[in-house]
Every structure is written in structure tokens, then in C-alpha cells.
């Protein structure tokens, strides 16, 4: 099937801040891919569709299993950018046997989606993309990890600028994911721990060298990296405040610090620090991850589209391809070792 003959990708919440940018990124990567921008406000969704070209707009009703859409209208994938508490977007995808991309579920609230998959495992490909900014903490870390023969510790430090929350849907997700649980899950010395209060705080240096305080956060990255790398201690801490760029009077940035400790191929102890920065904030980074995921689900990268199954970003996407795309679309990746303020080199 050619890209022109593919049914459109249904993007629920595609008129929002991140959803519209993800749609725009998809359009840039694949001009011939048809898109359907779905939202509660038809005129707003239509405006986004008109700006994209080769797209249309619809209103969806998340209270209905068919989303209020005609039964004879085909789609190639479902990508929700809104928290669907009823999971009718997933039902819709499974009923039609088309790929589904989960973007808003915290690691502690995945059970309903997993149960739907387990009940109907052969219905559709389901990709969990609720990693930090849709993969930026996991996929590059897997590339950086190759210089180690053994990884003992992975510390991820994320910076989300207080001016960079995005639209209402993103703010709602942040509020839910940070307040629903009294404690946060990390991997500590090989044991899964739930930490809170002092144990849930950590200080790390932003890319400008300023030390900031952060709180433990548990998207899917911690569990994914534990399984793939074998590290005994992994945590992701989020600083919500000022980014390095806004601190010096520029546009807010989003930043990710990846620090690892372990052994090199000769058995010698080593440590590394990599910094990933996007000068336009979190939305374009998330959009890159989602667009790359949709590309993989539809087989638009030249590889066969995945069969029905349950996937995570690191089990379906190629880390090198993702990292190359991330830098091509504006992110800066720098390796600083051993001192985070000296001897910077591009990774």
C-alpha cells in the first residue's frame, strides 16, 4: 500500500498545542500522508487541517465507542493527545484492527490498557509512548549506553520550564501524574522502591551549570531502561521551574541530563554525562517522538509495519534513527565528561 492510498491518521486532540505540532511534524516528514484532525471544536480543528493541507477535520465524542464517527470511514491509526479515561479511542482502534498510540498514561495507570490488550491480543498494534516527551529520555540513553560493558546507575534529570506547560491537556496530564500518587517508583540497588518526601528529591546541574532541585517522576522510561540496560539503580527527576535558556533571557528550552556510571569494555570504572537541549521547549521534542512512532506503526520507514501486539518505544523504534531525527529537527546533543562543565563535545 502506497502512502497516498493509506487511510488518514486520526489525531484526537490534534488542534491542541502538542497535537497540532505533532501533526505538522508528520506532514513535514511525509507530505503525502493524509491526516484527520479531531477535536471538540470543529472550527478550530478545521483551521489546523487547512494549515496542514491534505487533511480534514471531525468532531469526536469520547463517550461513544465509535467516537461518533461513521462506520464506513476508514483510518490507518489512532493517536490521542487527550487523556481518554473511558479508553474508547483504544476500543475504536481494536475494533478496526488499526494501530493505537498511547501518549498520556503514567506507569501507575496502565492497567486498563494492558487489560484491553490481554483480552484481545490479536486485534491491533498498541504502542505505549508515555515516556518522558515521547522517548527522549529512553532512546538516546540506549545509544549513549553502548560505551559501557556494564551499567550500574542511570540518573535522568529533566528540566521543564514553567512557561512551557503547553495547552490545557498537557497541564491536566501534569497535574494528574504528579498528584495522583503519594510516592514515586524508582529502581534502587536492584529493588523497586516507592519514594516520597526527602528520598524523592535530588539536585542536579542544568546545562548552564546551575544546580536545581528536582522531584522523582515515573514515566515509562525507568521501567524500560531497567529491562534493557540491566542497571541496578535508575531514576528520573523533574525540575519544573526555569530552564537555562530562559534564565539568560532567551526563549524557554527543554533539557534532559543523562548521567551514567559503570564499567567500560576493559572493566575500568567510567561515568558519562550527556545533555539534550531543544531551544523551543518540550512541544517539538514530543512531536518528534510521536511522529516517528506513527511512521514506524504504519511502516513508512521502509520496514514492515508491526503486527498486532503490545509495544514500548524502545521495543519498536530504532534509537539511532530517533536520535538523528531529533538533532535534524533542532535539538542539540552534547557529551560532557568527566566534568559536566569542561571538555564539551558533540555526541
List the helices and strands and how they pair.
Blueprint: E1 9-12, H1 17-29, E2 35-39, H2 42-52, E3 55-59, E4 77-80, H3 88-96, E5 100-102, H4 111-119, E6 125-128, H5 139-144, E7 150-161, H6 168-179, E8 184-188, E9 191-195, E10 201-205, E11 211-217, H7 221-229, E12 233-241, H8 244-247, E13 254-263, E14 269-278, H9 282-297, E15 309-312, H10 313-316, H11 319-328, E16 332-336, E17 344-346
Parallel strand pairs: 1-2, 1-4, 2-3, 5-6, 6-15, 7-12
Antiparallel strand pairs: 7-13, 8-9, 10-11, 11-12, 13-14, 14-16, 16-17
Helix pairs in contact: 1-9
Q: What features would you describe in this structure?
A:
This protein is an alpha/beta fold. It folds into two domains: 3-131 and 285-318, NAD(P)-binding Rossmann-like Domain (Rossmann fold, 3-Layer(aba) Sandwich), CATH 3.40.50.720; 134-280 and 325-346, 2-Layer Sandwich (Dihydrodipicolinate Reductase, domain 2). The chain is built from eleven helices and 17 strands. The strands form four sheets. It has an eight-stranded mixed beta sheet with strand order 10-11-12-7-13-14-16-17. A four-stranded parallel beta sheet has the order 3-2-1-4, with helices on both faces. It has a three-stranded parallel beta sheet with strand order 5-6-15, sandwiched between helices. A hairpin with a 7-residue loop joins strand 16 and strand 17. Helix 1 (17-29) crosses helix 9 (282-297). The longest helix is centred in the C-terminal third of the chain and has 16 residues, at 282-297. The radius of gyration is 20 Å and the shape is globular. The chain starts with 8 loop residues before the first strand and ends with a strand.
